[in-house]
Amino acid sequence: MTLKRAVPARHVFAIYWRTWFAQIRAIVEYPADLWVMASAGAVWNILQFAFLAVLFANVPNVAGWDYHEMLMLSGLLSVAGGCNALFWDGAWSTGTMVIKGDIDYRITRPAPVIIQVGSSHIGMQSIGEVVFGAAMFVYGWIGAGIGFAAVPIGVLAIVCAALIQCALVTALCAVNFWIKGQASIFAFLLIELQGNAMKMPLGIFPSGVRIVAMFLVPVAFVNFVPVSVITGHMSAWWLAGIPAAVIGSVLLAVGVYRLGLRAYDSAGH
Amino acid sequence: MASVDLALATIAFKRKIAYKTTWLFSVLFGGWSMLAGLAVWNHLIGDGEIGGYDWDSMKAYLIIGFLTSTLAWAGSDWDMANRILDGLVSIDLTKPVDFQRARAAEYIGGMTASVPAAILGTLIAVLVFRPAGPASPLAAALTAFSLLFIFPLAFGISYLATLCCFVTQRFLGIQWAKDSMVAFFSGLMVPIALMPVWLQGIAWAMPFVHFTTTPASIYLGRVDTAGALGLIAAEAAWAAGLWIIGRLIWRQLVKKVTIHGG
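YS: structure for the whole thing
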């Protein structure tokens, strides 16, 4: 299958936003859906907050990290996951589209397939995730005694976390082009790994896990590295690694998706 | 069990293992959360104890949590949800098979596909990590018996979650909310014994606690025989209660189905 030549970036952004706003208009038509899903996202975050509150009622710190610093870790991870659901939830449908042959329609349209798929849904749980995640992050920020001077780094951290999260989820969902299945098992494993390991300081894990999380699948740059730099657990030089992780993750996602499209052979009839 | 239930369960089982590579990878990587939990609690407990759990008993607790969560999260949630989201439920209404019973058969059939992986993973974890043994042979037997209730409990909770799809367009967020409720209130994220008393009360008043805390408490001898039998009775009551609640909610929500054309 021959892929189309590249289209102008302006056209790509226009397509993305038109599709995204179409989703927003559809959401407004179904208010019950909106509130059920927003509540679902809020539940997840409230339970993360409760987990940390219970944990720190029993231990004074975890590997030198106190309660407020750990809230920042969980908060930033939630905001990143929420941004994925808000701006790029369609990536999760890749496996289903491959099985059903729904990629066919998107190949014939004059816009990149990855943009069409990524913007095909909005996960409304994202509203709860982003709001409560941001609340945890800000509460932790204030509690940890971090001043306004670090706010630009915090904003950069949030933007980069969202980009890395979306890119890694996209790359792992694209594995379904080869390993067929409705569920994006690898992307789910990423989320599970992040949920279990990345809301904790990396120092408590074996060195192999640290190397994988920092350099192979750079999930550490979603929340651990930026929060470590902001709270002084890591040197400021590590900040340079965050944009590098963004570029690497995005290139990985685009590359894997392109290869996946080459391997795509429709559903067959 | 009627032959139609067995047929539906068999189809769900075969569908689950049809995508062999996905199934294989889910088996291989299913232990990630347990390994992460072991690393975290090893760091926190060290040579001491927290909430009455020393390192050996915490290892047993986490391995039981791995076993139950592998079973509980292996059901056909998405198949159930997609039937509602895609509108296939309207076809189901024309069939001479009760919707809830048919979905239960499929769900348990799907869960059965994960039993070999759950047992294999548990055996490997036991051999590698050497957790505390059962408090007594009777405690081991009662633990195994209590684990059987994971099947109807998991279905009951997942069925209620998927019924939300009558008023939503996506299932992903609902599934994560449901999974996080199960993980937190079952004691998988943090043992119930570490929670403040009021939160423990809330946890014990919900069905989720029977996914990890109940079998682990029986296994480790944190409850006596009478207490263990009481917990198993509570599991049975919740299994029946969730079935009835599911049926009542279905009766209301199915009215939302609109069939166009004709």
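YS: worth flagging: Residues 9-263 of chain A form one domain.
IM: good catch. Also Chain A touches chain B through 48 residues (CB under 8 Å).
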